[in-house]
Amino acid sequence: MSEYKLYCFAQSGNAYRAALMLNLIGAKWEPVWVDFFGKKEQLTPEYRGSVNEMGEIPVLVDGAKKLSQSAVILNYLADKTGKFQPQGTDERYEALRWMIFDNQKVNGFLGPFRALKNYLPGDNSAAMAFLKGRLTNNLGVINKRLEGRDFLIADRPTIADISQTAYLYYPAEEFGFDIPSEYPAIGKWLDRMRALPNWGHPYELMPGHPLPAKT
Ligand SMILES: N[C@@H](CCC(=O)N[C@@H](CS)C(=O)NCC(=O)O)C(=O)O
Q: Cβ(208) to ligand 1 under 6 A?
C-alpha cells in the first residue's frame, strides 16, 4: 500500500519537484491525476474545498496530513526521512534562499513561459518576451552558482537541488531554447542529478502525457 499520494499532472514542473523527491527517497507513493487542462479541476469548489484552497498543484497527502507548496513538501519529506536534508542552521537558510529564488524567479518564470508557448491560445509574444528577458538573467545566476561546484548549497544534493530541477528536464522544443547547452554548468548539474538512484523523468513519474489531441 502507498504511504503517500501526490496530486499532480505530467506537465507540472512544480509537481515534479515532489514526485522526484518521493522517488529519490524510495517512498511508496501513488499519483492522483488532476485534470488541469481539460476539466480544470483546480478551479472547482470541490478541489478548493477538499484538496487545496489555493487551487494549486502539487498537494502531498500523508495520512491525515495534506501539504501544498513544493518547498514545504520537500522540507517535510527531508525532515521526516533525513534524506536530502540541509544540515545545520546555515545550510537550512541557504537552502531556503535558493528555493525561494527558484520558486519566484527561475522555475517561477519558466513554468508560465512554457505554458504561454504550449498551452495558452492567442498572441502571447509580449508576455513571453518579458519572461524570456528575466529568464536569461536568472538562469544565468543559477549557471554561475553551479560553475565549479557539484550541487547548489553543499557538496551533496539537497532539497535545494531537487526543487531547482522543476521544469529543467522538459524537452527543449517546449521552450524554444535549449537550457542544458545554453547554460553548460546547469547542463552538467542536470546530468549529476539524473545519475542519482531512482531518478525519473517528469513524463515517466506523473500521469497525463501526452495531452489528448484537440478536437
Ligand atoms: N509555488 C508553488 C507553485 C504551484 C503552481 O503554481 N502550480 C501550478 C501547476 S504547475 C498551478 O497549480 N497553477 C494554478 C494557478 O496558478 O491558478 C509550488 O511550488 O508548489
A: no
Q: Which atom of ligand 1 is nearest to the CA of 107?
A: 19
Is residue 14 within 6 Å of ligand 1 at its C-beta? yes
Per-residue pLDDT tens over the stretch 71-118: 999 999 999 999 999 999 999 999 999 999 999 999 999 999 999 999
Residues of the chain where predicted confidence (pLDDT) is lower than 70: 215
Q: What is the pLDDT of residue 47?
A: 98
User: Length of the chain, please?
Assistant: 215
- C-alpha 152/C-alpha 206 separation (Å) is 25
Distance CA 90, CA 134 (A): 28
Q: Give the chain's domains with CATH numbers.
A: 4-83+200-205 (3.40.30.10), 88-194 (1.20.1050.10)
